Batch of 2 targets.
Target 1
Amino acid sequence: MAYRKTPAEISRLEAARDHLVVRATEVVAEVGWAQASVTAVADAAGIAAGSVYQHFPSKAALAVEVFRRAAGREVEVLGEVLHGPGDPVGRLARGTEVFARRALENRGLAYALLAAPAEPAVGAERLDFRRRYRALFAAVVREGIAAGALPPQNAEITAAALTGAIGEVLVDPLAAPDENATEALLADLTGTALRCAGAPPAT
Amino acid sequence: MAYRKTPAEISRLEAARDHLVVRATEVVAEVGWAQASVTAVADAAGIAAGSVYQHFPSKAALAVEVFRRAAGREVEVLGEVLHGPGDPVGRLARGTEVFARRALENRGLAYALLAAPAEPAVGAERLDFRRRYRALFAAVVREGIAAGALPPQNAEITAAALTGAIGEVLVDPLAAPDENATEALLADLTGTALRCAGAPPAT
DNA sequence: GGAAAGTCTGAATGATGGTTCACTTCTTTC
DNA sequence: GAAAGAAGTGAACCATCATTCAGACTTTCC
């Protein structure tokens, strides 16, 4: 044996992989999936196109990793708010607001995650993550029903509706942002989300 | 001059174009946009690939026409229900139901129109049609507010939420239909839609 | 230092699929 | 029926990328 990966070398490779994913995410956020060619991504990461294949078996695998990391962060944040302290209705409102605010603060990425045309592998991943959003919302809705704060309803359907509603409401603002209207938009959106779940109007 | 298009010839050409669009729509409904290659579509229409270009300058133009026709029908039907007779809340419920029912009856096409990955030109068209759905819903919501049947709210936001909610709720059933659960699904969906707009729960 | 085992490079390769075009077939008009 | 003008054909063309690979360069370890 004349070569074994030293710890330093291993972490160097991991860092390189990481850097590639980070830069690829930036490229996707800027130009969308369709324009994020292997060459463009490799250039952004400062490596040759062929080197991408040292870290990922295919472009699709890299794209999936980019999606998973970015979407995973959002699921995590949303989950923390929805499972956090407070009454279910308040958490639902806060979760909606936090989700929307984060999307508006990182529009390119949010659009890529939510709506931008993507290759099939990413599309499948998107479906999976939407299911996770739904599961998070459904849990809170069920809590709300159990606590008597929300009327009886099919929590799964409501959760799907919330996911779709929030996404659709954000599409236009993500494309053509109006900084001044952000707070009003968030207020209207959370209000609509609460109505959607059947929360009684705020006094 | 030795040749001028006779009326019969003109209508034959129009019919051929029409036939191409119809068959292309079927192909898209069956296999999705990505798999609907020019060759596949031409084969389905019984013509050569090159002949497609007698009717459309590009594949994208054909795809847009397919989308417009199919989506246009849905907008028309929805518009008739939403602008039809009855109180605004009832029309909203009925519109939601009709839209969902039609989608479930023609799942492949509905999926292609609502969610399936598509080339940019079709994506742009999709955004446009979503805007039309929103406008239709927004008008009814405004009517409901004016009539005192719905609470004050930003009708545009609610309309976007309705569009997104209905679409998202349908995605799973479109992919994995459960014939037995259709009526329950429709009831839950219309219920959620009404809550979304703030209609008081049915007694 | 040097051999072994990697890593990195970037031009060549290959697959895909839209588009073109020389040619054939059909319609019109006289 | 024959010339002129279209429409229809489908194999060839071409552009676009993802992917590969032979060679250059690095790191490890004796």
Note: Residues 1-6, 9, 37-39, 49-50, 52-53, 58-59 of chain A lie near DNA strand D (CB under 10 Å from a C1').
Target 2
Amino acid sequence: MFDRGFQRHGDEAGPVISAELLAVVVAMVDDEPCVLTLGEPQPRLPAGPLLPGHRSLQAATRLWVEEQTGRRLGYLEQLYTFADLDRDGGSTRTVSISYLGLTTPNAETGFGDWRRWYSLLPWEDVRSEPTLLTERIEPQLREWAGSEKSLAGERLQRCAVTFGLDDHPWQPDLVLQRYELLYESGLVPESPPAWRQPDADLVPGDPMVGDHRRALATGLARLRAKIGYRPVVFELMAPEFTLGQLQDCVEALAGRAVHTQNFRRLIEQQDLVEDTGKVESRTGGRPARLYRFRREVLQERQAAGTKLPTGRSR
Amino acid sequence: MFDRGFQRHGDEAGPVISAELLAVVVAMVDDEPCVLTLGEPQPRLPAGPLLPGHRSLQAATRLWVEEQTGRRLGYLEQLYTFADLDRDGGSTRTVSISYLGLTTPNAETGFGDWRRWYSLLPWEDVRSEPTLLTERIEPQLREWAGSEKSLAGERLQRCAVTFGLDDHPWQPDLVLQRYELLYESGLVPESPPAWRQPDADLVPGDPMVGDHRRALATGLARLRAKIGYRPVVFELMAPEFTLGQLQDCVEALAGRAVHTQNFRRLIEQQDLVEDTGKVESRTGGRPARLYRFRREVLQERQAAGTKLPTGRSR
DNA sequence: GCACTTATGCTCTGAGTTAGCATAAGTGCA
DNA sequence: TGCACTTATGCTAACTCAGAGCATAAGTGC
């Protein structure tokens, strides 16, 4: 046991620590979910230290994102707070407080790059045949699981549950668990070299600075879970949209297809949207009605928001 | 706008800040949900600064709770991170990272007080007729809402949604929103004096140090939400229990009654528990079977855990 | 005019919930 | 001993909702 110093509550002035705000900012660009990143070749998330003048953690996050990318955020929610020991060897320690922000990309003024989620976490996209999963990841996970006899059963079950192997269903919101499993099994570049399998064929997907890809996974997980019970998708949509566009957005976020007719029914019966009377005819087929999000629902119900179907066929 | 100093990511050594861990530790004592508190007369939650030697935020929280209360925690999950400007006027700033812990109170060795949730947040208990709500809180909220003509509609709707007035349903997990509404309307002792209504009759419930009651509300909200989709109730139960005890626990947590037969069916059909073969006959009625939580389910399914009924009649 | 695409309406079916009815098996007391 | 009362447990009718499929509408491109 290390020395805890036997400090008690009261002497709140602890040792020197710095707090960093980290933003996972999401928008749909060309019908693909993207994250706002900075830097080449290793992308990183917008981030900055908490300064004495900042009014609140949330305000600080907004300011840093604005300063670094020129974009003003709308929706913003706290994700998670990390404090990794390994980050800096020195005596100061960094606590990272991560946030999830949702916007529309239309502001042409900003800088920073919109990177596609699925170029960063490719295995999360199962809208088409997930050959990446079945052909490259699954065999390697099984090998990793079996490589340690005493843990094999446990590991195998964990892989099966998180990646939907064998008879387990694919669960879209286990994004973080999947990333961590890949990390632990040495299949991503961020994994500690010691954990790497001897003949490992690293899983594709661009790594990010530090543990930013983990923060991204946390954000994606939260977003996928949340679209199921709160009307947050609309934060990513233009003011007016067709139900087809909305469905495309949900499918892109969830990384999975949904049954069109059921999707429409669910959206309509919940009074989440209202008809604008206009139609959009550039659809390539029958023109679609244009709808608008009924912002009032945010006040009307604190919960029981957007229920979204989980089925898979179109 | 204040001076942001135009620091960019990279110079991570921000200004002096201290990080504090705050623990909301819950256990069932005499069939009532309780929180572990310290100090008299104003109770506070166990807390302590993050020190350089701490391995992780979670480990630090465990250590502080152990040191201050002599109790070892089992289940522990992060709740939320706050940074209130008003806390200390000086140049250092405190970031509070709160955790929710679940235990059983059996260890007689510890110190600290188990305080009943509902002595701290009495309006949250609607198992019996909620006269506190209907007779004292509701009228005052309506008055507050009406006191500002231009905001009356909005405020009234907010009150109705969060407290289940008019035709809105009571939503057990809006604990935090209810506390914040009471805070903003000047009905709790913690409210800024300026917000207090001229003839306010403060709502009963023991206040705590600083914003600890807010952290408690956050914990209760999380717990209420989580028992609905993850098997966390069992962390609060003795190793063996009857379904009646389990139901009592759930009802006490949710602050609301559930339909007994449906509850039993739900628990059983999900394979969450296994029969021990023993019976408990001190029930005052027909003896009940003793069950044990099947810990394996924690591995078997990452989600789709304990579904609990939401109905209200017994 | 025809093939193709997307939009939209409607229905069948099965699963899961809510709410009761009914019975079992103890305890406490007249 | 028997009755009132309590808690435990089994079972089912009514209802709600999600999943899946059938069918039609109304555009575009050739």
Note: The two ends of chain A are 57 Å apart (CA to CA).
